[in-house]
Amino acid sequence: MQILQAFASLFANFGNLTWQMVVMWAIGALLIYLAIAKKMEPSLLLPMGFGAILVNLPLSGAITQGDTVGPISALFDAGMSNELFPLLLFIGIGAMIDFGPLLEKPWLMLFGAAAQFGIFLTFALAGLVFDMNDAASIAIIGAADGPTAIFVANTLGSKYLGAIMVAAYSYMALVPIVQPPVIRLLTTKHERCIRMPYQKGNVSQVTKILFPVVVTVLAGLIAPASVALVGFLMFGNLLRECGVLNSLSETAQNVLANLITILLGLTVAGQMTADKFVKADTLLILALGLVAFVFDTAGGVLFAKVLNLFLPAGKKINPMIGAAGISAFPMSGRVVNQMGLAEDNQNFLLMYSISVNVSGQIASVIAGGLILTLMGA
Amino acid sequence: MLQFSNLSATLPIMLVGMVGIFLVIGVIILAVYLLNHLFSGNKK
Lengths: 377, 44
Known about the structure:
The structure holds two protein chains of two kinds. Chain A is an all-alpha fold. Chain A is built from 21 helices and no strands. The longest helix of chain A has about 30 residues, at about 280-310. By secondary structure, chain B is mainly alpha-helical. Chains A and B meet through helix 7, helix 8, helix 14 and helix 21 of A and helix 1 of B.
């Protein structure tokens, strides 16, 4: 009898299983499927998917249970609660970005600013349902930039970090599906066919080196809360452009970025426990994230259309490039270029769309800093 | 339950945020034009 009881005790943990945990397994499996089969942000969705299953096993030892600290909880304390992981990832991202084409045509940065409209509109909408800190954290999904979303949500102490991360990375991966209908809705075929001949300009190496320093100082003076975000991004770019630290630049772009990405995905998954995730609020956050992406896109496109009202014939801007200002680098820039080619196979918008896309990266980070400054964080 | 009272706090932040982002980006654009002007002779 005792043997039977001992045998039965091996399966006692089954009694701790809840249907919410099973739902999380399904969500984890879906993320893994999207990562592998659809190649949607696999470097993040795969660790997040696996992690979602890992932390939703009953009494999972991967997360803290009572006094026993789990490794994923320890990682959260070590790298997320102090925003270290997203900031380190920003060094890698900064090292990957070539701001050269943008520096040739700095006015393109205006589209990056316009395409942050979805963040602020979503903030107002989310504020109708959520408290202010959570509303701001949800709105920053519209930054289309995972590290910024993590940084802001974490700094504001949002309890919806897991859902915000899933929404941010999912929509970034879904840019080719989300953006084209919005762009088509807001533009005519004639506008989509506007050609923008690209004339390469010259940017000195001194300018490329000074740019990250100047941006850090200016952004820091105006929005001090953005200093960490902007500073780490720009430090990575300085490694790239200084010309004497190529090995560090390559390490930041590859080894550092990959290592942090692995840890980041798993750590975010630690916030995807069933008790925090299987809620009606999660669906609402996903819906608001979509609103943010749609209105970011609309903001960029409509801003270009407004500029066109003042520009002479022959100097008109193809309003589609405004949509690339949402960050989500480089997918958004590529999507806009492909849409241009689909309308006119000689309409090459890539240099403009990628430049606007890069400016969106800067603008989204600054928007995150502004949100934090305005929220008094 | 929709909390319409929050609009009195969120709408000003929305306005200041959008103006702020254009302001910061505008200053950065001017700085880049200045850098390009100052160092245009030192081509890569």
